[in-house]
């Protein structure tokens, strides 16, 4: 009974906390409402309880570390098949190709936008459900290409739209200006879609809320956001929980200038 009450309290906290924008993460907690899992972990049944789940292939694992900088065909096919089996609270991220030549300084021999659109069309023709179709650009930190490259994409086949290739955009003035410009153009072009920003830095939370972004995710919670935590990545499960809760509190402080403890009164 005690564990059940603890979970319900946590649920009420997070539901109230993320009313304006949802934060998806591979959370180390027993209960977290907005989970993000890789396809491999999902298929291994490693997923803990959730209210909503996004399943993603994982850009860094396959596109960055893989020498060919492509997703294995087997995994793309697996995501495609999985998209027919989703519940109404599960979402598959249609495999997309960010500009890792700019983002991670990797040499690629393909047009990342063409490959992204190819997967859009494949999933669209199959009429799969609950898919997130992500827009990628050919470069980062280049304002001049944004409008033209948005127009290269067909009408999104679902109401869920992702914005990718921005996970390394941090908090300098130029980076904030670029991030704001991209998000505004996406929102202007797709005003009626639920927009998720992949890997967004916490630096951009206020802007995301003002522009009307619906959700984002990040793995950066495993790094300290307060001087009370060690200046390194979390190493143990206990530290992971501490780091994650600190990140959540940081998000909410930025959102409402309110402390997590206010919900426990």
Q: If you had to describe this structure to a student in words, what would you say it looks like?
A:
By secondary structure, the protein is of the alpha/beta class. The chain is built from ten helices and eight strands. It has helices at 2-17, 39-43, 59-64, 73-82, 100-103, 112-125, 146-150, 173-189, 205-211, 237-256; strands at 22-24, 34-38, 52-56, 90-93, 131-135, 160-163, 194-197, 215-217. It is globular, with a radius of gyration of 18 Å. It has a single domain, classed as TIM Barrel, CATH 3.20.20. β7 (194-197), α9 (205-211) and β8 form a beta-alpha-beta unit.
Derived structural class: alpha/beta
Radius of gyration of CA atoms, rounded to a whole number = 18 Å
* Net shape: globular
Number of helices: 10
Specify the biggest β-sheet.
8 strands, parallel
Going by CATH, the architecture would be Alpha-Beta Barrel
Unreliable stretches (pLDDT < 50, length at least 5) are 1-6, 257-265
Beta-strand fraction estimate: 5-15%
Strand order of the largest sheet: 1-8-7-6-5-4-3-2
Count of domains: 1
Q: Provide the CATH top-level class.
A: Alpha Beta
Q: How helix-rich are the residues, as a percent range?
A: 25-40%
Question: Total strand count, please?
Answer: 8
First-to-last CA distance = 21 Å
């Amino acid at each position: 009974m005690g564990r059940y009450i603890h979970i319900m309290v946590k649920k009420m906290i997070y539901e109230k906390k993320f009313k304006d924008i949802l934060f998806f993460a591979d959370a180390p907690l027993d209960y977290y409402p907005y989970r993000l899992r890789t396809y491999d972990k999902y298929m291994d049944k490693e997923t803990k309880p959730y209210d909503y789940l996004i399943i993603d292939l994982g850009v860094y694992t396959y596109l960055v570390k893989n020498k060919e900088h492509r997703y294995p065909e087997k995994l793309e096919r697996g995501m495609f098949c999985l998209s027919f089996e989703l519940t109404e609270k599960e979402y598959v991220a249609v495999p997309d190709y960010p500009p890792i030549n700019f983002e991670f300084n990797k040499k690629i021999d393909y047009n990342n936008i063409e490959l992204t659109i190819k997967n859009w069309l494949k999933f669209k023709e199959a009429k799969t459900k609950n898919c997130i179709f992500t827009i990628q650009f050919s470069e980062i930190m280049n304002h001049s290409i944004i409008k033209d490259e948005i127009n290269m994409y067909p009408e999104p086949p679902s109401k869920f739209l992702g914005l990718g290739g921005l996970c390394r955009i941090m908090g300098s003035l130029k980076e904030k200006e670029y991030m704001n410009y991209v998000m505004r153009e996406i929102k202007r072009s797709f005003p009626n879609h639920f927009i998720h920003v992949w890997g967004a830095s916490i630096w951009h939370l206020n802007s995301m809320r003002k522009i009307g972004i619906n959700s984002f995710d990040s793995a950066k919670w495993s790094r300290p956001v307060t001087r009370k935590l060690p200046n390194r990545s979390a190493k143990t499960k206990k530290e992971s929980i501490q780091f994650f809760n600190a990140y959540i509190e940081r998000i909410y402080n930025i959102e409402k200038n309110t402390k997590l403890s206010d919900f426990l009164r």
